[in-house]
Amino acid sequence: MPALTDTQLKDTKFSILELAPIREDQNVEFSLKHALALAQHAEKLGYERLWLAEHHNMDGIASSATAVLLGYILANTQKIRLGSGGIMLPNHAPLVVAEQFGTLATLYPNRIELGLGRAPGTDPTTMRALRRGRQETEDQFPQDVLEILSYFADAQPQQSIKATPGQGTHVPVWLLGSSLFSAQLAARLGLPYSFASHFAPRMLGQAIQLYRDNFQPSEYLDKPYVSMGVPTVVASTDAEAEYLATSVYQRILALLTGQSLKLKAPIESMEGRWSVSEKMAVQNFLAMAQIGSPETVKKGLENLLEKYQVDEFIFTCDIYDTDKRLENFSLLMDLKK
């Protein structure tokens, strides 16, 4: 593989995945308004896109009504592309998803895109509450994706069900995944693919290779296009970044142990807060994370790019202080200069 150059990092697209984290000392309204502030900040900085993730029954995540929040952000930004990262398709009827995103695409042309996930993104009890007796399973995911694509395409002469709005909007569709299934499907359908390495990095390399090896050009895409999720905590020094990252460590530990996911303030040390096995589990979860000064993070991103040759990084950030969180994305974009 050729040696990496600064130009390659410079040419790699930078995007943001936002989960609208809820701080333990703030309310949900604060988080939703900060999501807008982040999108406006990202737009000024030149980020490619900002996606919102769908999660349910999680007290630390405010982006559950993804399409609704996207509408709020679209109305208060000018040009940045916005979308879902992703809509968890087992929770929804494909026609409803197409109508929602078709409406957004009609109101805000060429700015909305739809990332689709195969898992429900929540616990079994909440999943049943979302479905209310519907019998959809992950096995139906390929058929549901094809159905949504048909609703965004130009209407066919004998088409009995049409998405209105939606039909003919040609909303770009991505497939998301943390295993090999969606990589295979994205390759077969010729769709862009985003791997959820911000929380499930283990199969990243295998999934990307499978996608590239099996990619079939389509009306949507002529060659493979891959993005990877990267958790980030960037600050002026390595020491400050490591301090700020304790909020991330506490949040992941809480996720793994079934505790509140509300974002906690940083602390001086995690010693005594986790066992050896818990620390290892958090580190495995964050295997792709880039934590440190701009110089440290630049080297880390260059290493990821050299290893995986992705087209795009999509960054997450769970810094507690909102100003420091915005600064994280400013420092990241500075790395492309």
UniProtKB/TrEMBL annotation:
One of its GO terms (cellular component) is cytosol. SUPFAM superfamilies: Bacterial luciferase-like (SSF51679). Residues 15-305 form the Luciferase-like domain. It holds the Pfam family Bac_luciferase. InterPro entries: Bact_Lucif_Oxidored, CmoO-like, Luciferase-like_dom, Luciferase-like_sf. This is Luciferase-like monooxygenase. GO terms for molecular function: oxidoreductase activity, acting on paired donors, with incorporation or reduction of molecular oxygen. To bacterial alkanal monooxygenase alpha and beta chains.
